[in-house]
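Figure S4 source data
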Amino acid sequence: MEGVLSGFAVIAIVIAVGYGLGRRGTLGEQGIDVLTRLAFTVAGPALLFTTLAKADLSVLFSSRLLVTALSTAAVAGTFTAIGVLRRWGAGRTTIGALCSGYVNSGNLGIPIAAYVLGDASLVAPVLLFQVVLVTPIALTILDLSGTGEKGSPWQRLLTPLRNPIALGSLSGVVVSAAGLRVPGPVLDPLTLIGNMSVPAALLTFGMSLHGGAAPGRGRDRQLVLLSVALKSLGQPAVAWALARGVFGLHGAPLLDVVVTSALPAAQNLFTYASRYRVAESLARESILLSTVVSVPVLVGVAAVLG
């Protein structure tokens, strides 16, 4: 229980600082844009490269990861299907689908895994799955849709290689898969730059809350409530059903996959929405509301399955 509370406390404090900066106008009118570009084009790619370059890719091949992948596909697919039927548009539907299944495995998942599950490395498969597969696919869709990509078919094919987040992730995977060791003089500056990513994303999110509508009451109310319901209730329920009924997991492994699936939507999704100027209110409200709802959900899961 301590891990859940401490993880949320750290995030809440940094977001509150961001809110204070936004309210006072400390960083000026362009503060959110500058921090967003910093996180998306510099710090985020550096963090993903340094993380994946040292990662053990073998953790991608496990029953726990299959549960995560299938539960993510189930909730994101549900949102996407409804978005297509309701004609919400490719950009809004993509952001909503991400908010429905992309968990906060980094700055919240790590402390919760460490204190609740007893092993911070248990979030590694989820982290790798999201940055290696989900993020490049989603950002490629955003690149090719709402931003009006007009290049040739060859340029469209190379879209993922022009996206900083996807390029950082794929470069890290290549280094890890090849068994290469990045020299300290190269890795250390990248690590230092990458350490700005999470604080920048949290501060940006906090700044965006100033003057924004209460979550679930804006023009994207239906989309927000749907994504939060899928993220906070649907994904952990699907993960539990798959882990227990299909893969026969019990005890600690069952608790692991359900807890990681019950994590709220990740704050960096707002960075993506801001970067592409699409569904920013949807991302902001979904992240905030799913974070609030996830507290009792995680406590309940830990109490029942722990």
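Figure S5 source data
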Amino acid sequence: MKINADVIARTSLRLLNEVGLDGLTMRLVAKELDVKAPALYWHLKSKQELLDAMAALVMIEAVEGLESPRPGASWEEWLSRWAGRLRATMLRYRDGARVVAGTHVGHPAVFRLIEVTLRHLGDAGFTQRDAARLPSILLHYTIGFTIEEQARLGDAYAEGRNPYRPELVAEIADAERFPLTAQMVGEIFHPDPGAEFEDGVRVILAGMRAARLDG
């Protein structure tokens, strides 16, 4: 197989589900491709460039088929939809949100998403400045939430040692010292992360709505 940056990144994403981000090395990727590790550096000069290429594939997958807002569609619906798609795509890969966090993605598909978002929010009455800055809050929330969501799966811990299990937290939270915490463990460690995510999206969109009105 002839290797290039795309092949290397796709192979790395496949390995990610097996070994996680901490276990992913250039040496392991090279072994999977049946080449020597130095061969990879002709195409990607560092582990960070590999992560950038992997993140680009995740972002492309997240926006693939995402249509421009329908006439009359609300900007809230539009932003909520792309945030949900991004979360769902990152969840398809072990540590997918950690891969995306802190990476540089300059693919045209991402710039198309930005362009459509800017135009849609401008039509909804946002200033150009707010249309450019406010969606970043939702983006950062989506990535951060998904990092935490994937961490709570406990893949980084030995089997049966996941400290995020609500029943375990309930055991170690002293109900006499921390009565409210003990009472609300089920909400703090929500059993339905999808519903919890949507709650956060609604709060951010409400803040964006208020910011537009204030402006």
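The domain at 63-152+189-214 is CATH 1.10.357.10 (Tetracycline Repressor; domain 2). The two ends are 56 Å apart (CA to CA).
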